[in-house]
Amino acid sequence: PLKSVLGKGNLDIASGSPGEYVDLVVNSFEYHRLKNWGIKTEILIKDLIREKEKYRGSYHSYDQVVQILRGHASSHPNICRLDSLGRSYQGRWIYCLKISDNPSVEDPTEPDILFDALHHAREWATIEVVLFYADTLTSGYNNDPVITNLINNNEIWLVPIVNADGYVYDYPGQNSWRKTREPYGGATGTDANRNYNGVCGPEKVDAWGFIPSGGSVTHRQSSNVFCGAYGFFADCSDVLANLIRSHNFNVHITYHSYGEQILWPWAHKSPNTPDATLYQQLANTMASLVRASMEATTTPARQYIRYRGRPMAGPTATTTIWVARNAYPIPMK
Ligand SMILES: [Zn+2]
Fold this sequence. Notes:
Blueprint: H1 2-6, E1 12-17, E2 21-25, H2 28-36, H3 48-55, H4 62-75, E3 80-87, E4 93-99, E5 112-117, H5 125-140, H6 145-153, E6 155-159, H7 164-170, E7 183-184, E8 187-188, H8 235-245, E9 249-255, E10 261-262, H9 276-297, E11 305-306, H10 319-327
Parallel strand pairs: 5-6, 5-9, 10-11
Antiparallel strand pairs: 1-2, 3-4, 4-6, 7-8
Helix pairs in contact: 4-5
The structure holds zinc ion.
The site of zinc ion has 5 residues, from loops.
């Protein structure tokens, strides 16, 4: 029964393991419906909003993040440049910290590396990952030879908050909000990570608005995985897409929580990319490093699993799929 429920495609899937379980974010109506359908359930967190209240102080607010970024730019002007990429629907700046030697110069010979976070408003932990990179890189420059070498020979772009409106709405609590905040069709918000456009491929599955069987994406406006009125309808998705379009990124990692998974393309169709072996190797290394560090800090965590795409059918129009679609173009028919 679980498979057929997931096949309906509009559930908010937080994590899972293929053939074993899924973690879902549900309201009480959805929870009872699952029970009525005979699905075995276990409640991990009964009140997500109350749970978040306990931990908010450990996470930085939007304003604090902006201050931190400004601090890096002013204390390390030789390797940091702070850009405002564009505005969210409600007019908040979406910031990018570029870290490189000669940061105001575009060096086409240096690889471009992008880390972004917080497409989904309630995934607060992802911001801290990118802030940690900013801190580690700036403090290690001319102190740590590996970091110095990284900065001198790459252009590293950090976007810690993509969905600024959603974050400012969610951070004070009481919301557990996922989407952006623009109104549409009587509802509010687009899933910023289901709103990336299809590119030029002739395959229908790559187009924005395609709903794969079992994919967690829908045209229903009130849903948490609403794909938007059209591709790049959400201003914040459009802003990040413009940054990606204007550079030739060699590496791109986009952070979400809390799936404890490393996902790589394709998620929504079976053929592998030409770099499948490399992705597999990188994911193996990353997963084992995360596991090692979590044992060291005794943070309780399930195993990081390696999986190509989502455990179930994948969503379309995510950042990763759109970026990969540009990286692995197929000829027009
Ligand atoms: Zn997410």
